[in-house]
Amino acid sequence: MTHDRYPDADHWRRAWLLLLINGAARAGLTPIEQTDVHRAAFLANALAPLYDLPVENGLVVRWKRGPFFPDLQWDLDRLATMGLLTFRQVEPVKDSSGKWFCARYELGSLAASFLAATLQLESSRRVYRLHCELFAALAALSDDDNRSAALHDATYANLVDGDLKAEQTVIDFASFRDQNFTARATRAIGESLKDLAVNEREKLHLYVRYLGRRAGQVRRRV
Amino acid sequence: MSVLLPIITNVSITGYQLYPGRRQQGIDWPVLKGVSVIAGVNGLGKTTLLNILFRLLAGPVDWHVAEGAALGNLPHELRPIGDPSYFRARVADGAARATAAAEIRFGSTRIEIRRRLKDLSIEHLVVNGRVLDHRESTYREVVRTASGIASDFDFHMVLRLVVFYLEDRRSLIWDRSAQDEILRALFYPQNIAVRVASVGDQVQSLDSQFRNQRVFLKRQEGELASAEAAVAANSASRTAYSSAQTRLRALRERENELDEELVTAERERTESRNRVERARLDIEEQRRRHHDLRHRFFSTLFPGIGQVGTYLLVNLDGGAGCLVCGNRAEEAAKRLDVCVAEGICPLCDAPAERHDVRPIRVSARESEALIRVEQDIETAQQQLQDFETARDAAGERYWGLFEEQVRAREQRSDIERELDALRRMLPPPDETIEALRRVVSDLRRDQNELTAKRKVLEIGLRSDLEAGHRAVMAVADKIAQRFTDNAAAFLAEQCEITVVQENRRFGGETDVFQMPRFRVSLTSGVFKAQAQPRQGDREVSESQKEFIDLAFRLALLQTVSGNRPAMLVIETPEASLDSLFIARAGSLLGKFARGGGRIGNRLIASSNLNKEDMIPALFGLASEEEYIAWWARRRTGAPAASEHAVSVAERRKRMLNLLDEAAENRAVERYRDGYVLRYRRALDPEWSHPPMRPVGSRKKT
User: Fold this and answer.
1) For residues B520 and A43, what is the distance between their CA atoms, to the nearest angstrom?
2) DSSP B524
3) Contact list, B294 vs chain A (CB under 8 Å)
4) What is the DSSP pairing of strand A59-62 with strand B512-522?
5) Which residue among A55, B44, B495, B646 is least packed, with the fewest CB closer than 10 Å?
6) Is the interface score ipTM higher than 0.90?
7) For residues B313 and B323, what is the distance between their CA atoms, to the nearest angstrom?
8) B369/A contact by beta carbon, under 8 A
9) Tell me: the pLDDT tens digits for B666-696?
């Protein structure tokens, strides 16, 4: 996906990512671990239609560490070396999924001026509102629920695209096809509460709260 | 036989909640010869009562006339009443037991009729003392015989245009077609009046059929002409049509194939795309393993560089690219590999012997593992490249097929349009052309027959109209004279009517017939010396329009009835009269009321007590101004204008006081005393009595 005011797709993708980390910072969730960045990036894409925004990346693969976007990881590290983000707590770790380098990120010293320029554009401001609300909703959950919320999302955990336990299942929700169960779920929330006339922000919070509750239930069952 | 007009000599209404009557027994009102007045205030039911009088005579039927428009060539037939709930809707009990009865006279024929107000059906019918069956058809037959009016329609029209002058009246003198109709109904010999109405309707119907059929004929002729032209150019069109059909069939087959191919291409495109995505994650996994194996080496080579530095190096070494500058070319990783393998500093290219640090040696096991991982990465990258190539090829194939499908649809649409155009150029089958020829021929014959039938009818109609014409001309001068007299009472300007011959068609394309019609001439502030002809009601003022129409109706009534009794029912005449003319109008209407020989005319007027001058005028009293002038000169008797005044006792008998007879509304409840005072003043105005002498004044001797 490109943006009409950015010279190429790379620039806009990195601006979008910086806006995402900015959302986390405003909700007090930075430094943020890379796995959480990928999960939030997936939710931001799946929820984009709720804010009348285009989906930046409509394709995700179920991986053992949750949603993961190789290009986004490259951009994340590049932003960190460019000074727009800062690395925090880079360290090799070993967990149930194996050994790997875990990095945490927060806004860098150059981020403020870049964000100020980006937010001059109305379309960027809409992305900014979505990202801020997403992290505000995630911040309201417990740490465990927050981390697992994306794994219970209607698009990520859909049964149409195969067994939930099967790794490397490719889920196409807005690339070759348009099958965004997350957007449908938020619409259903609106319809079931039509007497209350809930707005997009309230729908997002209700949906994320539902994901958190679902994550808690599953964890307790396990 | 000349026409006799109806008069009502008695009205009674029982069981109708709107008129409980002063003794709660309803209304029983003898309509005496001369003037009778229905007095009341707004909302007490004056108009409803006048409508009851009308419906007692007319029954539950209406004519087919559009609101506001001229009568035109209307069909001479009646239909059920437009608003059958008119009387029901005005009371709470739906007029369940309400009846209205009247004694009606046509010359020596006396009809007693009682109708149910809920549906206007007849409950009781007596003619000259003989009880008849109470069917509407019986009543109408009696009316036709007694009145000498040719048809039910004509009787209804005479009631609406001459006898009743109600608020919803239609114009008469200003509507030329209405004049034709009323003159026919009142003055044509009875058999001719019936024939003119009936034949006129037939002529109109034939003309209408002729013109409707001609529209169809023109269309059929057009189709036949196109079909015959197509026959001439048949061969070339048929070849082109056949060729286009063949192309269309081929294209549809290709479209079906494309549909299937696209399904396969879409599946391949998705699968190859998914393979690429999975391969990228595989590589990511391999790199993690490589990071792990290299981490220990770099952290001992650059112990002070920290975890971030190490992270940059393991990324570069693992083949992800240089996070510092963004370079993702493979050479960057290879260079680092060489440095690591030969112990060269990756930053300044110094060989190992010049280093003052010694990184721990990579164990043989680690080395083997690294080689395996690097081989795995290389294999995975190669595989990824293959998958990407396959994905791109699948994408190209998919989009190629998609574009072909779009093009095929456009071509099909073009060919279908071409086929449509060619189909129109193809001649229809021979039997269709033959059928068209027959239809056109039949329609032409029908057209000729319709014209011939109409012509025959028009010959008879012309002859009847001439007879009618003579009958109208025989009374035209009388009508004109009476009109002039009547108009003088209403208008200060000189107003007269003259009969002229005007053209009339009974349909859009029928023959033209000469009709005698009355045209109005009137003086004005500009034309003082001689009355100027007025073509229509827009050439006079609103009040002049009404007075002239009323004067014409009165003239017709007077002419048709001569010395025999007639009746005029008029609703609130004061509504459109200038106050200075009220006395003169009252005098004229009073004069009409005094006519009618032994049985006597009836003038029934409703009047609003808020305008009390009209009622004394109707009873023949001179105006207040005349009385004041009279009392100033004399102290006894009455002004000459009151010569025919009705006595107070008689006036009381002739006034139906709705303040007592009708159900009280809020206004009467609240202001009854004031309304009663107005009623008394209207009945016997103070100014019609000699003024009181001032106290203490002395009579002159």
Assistant:
1) 90
2) -
3) none
4) unpaired
5) A55
6) no
7) 9
8) no
9) 889 898 999 999 999 899 988 888 876 655 5
